Amino acid sequence: MLLPDLTYVRKGSGPTLVLLHGIGHNKGAWDPIIDDLATRYDVIAPDLSGFGESPAFAGGVPYSMPNAVDHLASQFERWGVTKPHVVGNSLGGAISLELGARGLVSSVTALSPAGFFGPISKFQALAALFVLRIVAVLSPEFVVKRLTRTEIGLRLSGQLLYAHPERIPQDAALRDARGLKYCTAFERTAIQALGYFFDHQVPVTTTVAWGTKDLILPYSQSRTARARLTHAEHVDLPGCGHVPMIDDPELVTRVIDTTVARAEQTRTAAAA
């Protein structure tokens, strides 16, 4: 099965850190923290297939989680990295945990990861995401531009994803709106999510961090994550929404640094 190569940005030096965004988003989701992370890590932020600038899977290839993990593993090889540290948000968080479950990464930092919802909350999350998608698709370009030029517009367009949507730079808000409008894998990914849940053990250093004001995957789902991932570190992200890099970039960076440091200490101890 031939899958397309991903578009990505890479910067910095040090241990390799791969950043995976959520459904409908793109590598720009990491803009609030990527430059800081690049002072300590070799950071790779790809657009997942069918989002941002990356081409979609061929029509007959399902957007299943096994295919997504196999695809990322092939990209690691292409990028010349072995067992990188990985950070993921939402869908990217679920992919990160799956990579960790297979032992393909050195550590996992999962920010409000998908896969811990109940039957009702799963449909609520998908309904909210489809509302965002439909609004993006149906909104004319001039409307999107006007919305992203005002604080009220930023709040209206970003209130489901962020606790502080007014903090989004206008150019980033416009880029994200266009990305959600024109992405080619949204529906195919969402359909696969209907039958997905995460219930594996992750044999690598893992942190699950949840925004206490998450409206897409509510904070209550962190209790399920705690029950299933008993060996992981679980932390709260107070005052953060579903995409916490905008709401509190310093806190998210600290959580990542702490996770990587724990993993590096474990690796050093094992080698001694």
The count of helical stretches stands at 11
Share of residues in strands = 5-15%
Lateral arrangement of strands in the main beta sheet: 1-3-2-4-5-6-7
Tally of extended strands? 7
Name the overall outline: globular
Poorly predicted runs of 5 or more residues: none
Order of helices and strands: EEHEHEHEHHHHHEHEHH
Helix proportion:
40-55%
Average pLDDT rating: 93
Strand count, sense and barrel status of the largest sheet are: 7 strands, mixed
Estimated structural class = alpha/beta
Radius of gyration: 17 Å
Q: What is the terminal separation in angstroms? A: 41 Å
Descriptive tags:
11 helices; 7-stranded mixed β-sheet; 7 strands; 272 residues
Notes on the protein architecture:
The chain has 272 residues and is α/β, with parallel strands linked by helices. It is built from 11 helices and 7 strands. It has helices at 31-37, 65-79, 91-101, 119-138, 141-147, 151-158, 170-182, 186-193, 221-228, 244-247, 249-271, and strands spanning 8-11, 16-20, 42-46, 85-89, 107-111, 205-211, 233-237. It is globular. The protein starts with 7 loop residues before the first strand and ends with a helix.
State the gist of this model:
The chain is 46% helix and 13% strand. It is built from eleven helices and seven strands.
